[in-house]
Amino acid sequence: MEVIHNDDHTIHFVEEVLINFVILQVENLNLVLKENGITEKGIRQKICEKFFFEFSESIDSCYLRKEEKLFSPVICFGEFQNKESLLVDEINKLHVPTKAISLHESALGNSDWYFEEANEDTSEISHCDC
To answer: How far is CA 130 from CA 8, 38, 46, 74, in A?
Structure first.
């Protein structure tokens, strides 16, 4: 497996994939909020913004300690041969972001894009319906 972990790749490739992943998670939370009776768009948007800002901040700068070692969460993306091999075959490439980007800096913009520009529609992001 090839591991790609450098600033240039992070800025020009991984950042876009990461932002799209977060936007899909905003959509998931939004759907749960709707299913649980929160119908007002502005309230759902505020909840999503707050949650994803805090979540992103924890990805960017938090750590856990276990057995005197420090661990920090990292969202990486495995690249597979094709969708039929997804989670069946070995990962061909692992795209690991560097600290060249800060997820929390785009958290509010991601939520705003989803609610305002995309009008709660992620169809322009190519993804599975998981």
So the answer is: 30, 23, 25, 21
What residues make up the domain containing 103? 2-117
**Nearest to 102, CA basis, from 27, 14, 2:** 14
Q: What is the pLDDT of residues 9-51, one digit of tens each?
A: 999 999 999 999 999 999 999 999 999 999 999 999 999 999 9
Per-residue confidence band for 56, with pLDDT thresholds at 50, 70 and 90? very high
Domain count, the chain: 1
d(CA 56, CA 105): 8
Collapsing DSSP to helix, strand or coil, 4 comes out as: strand
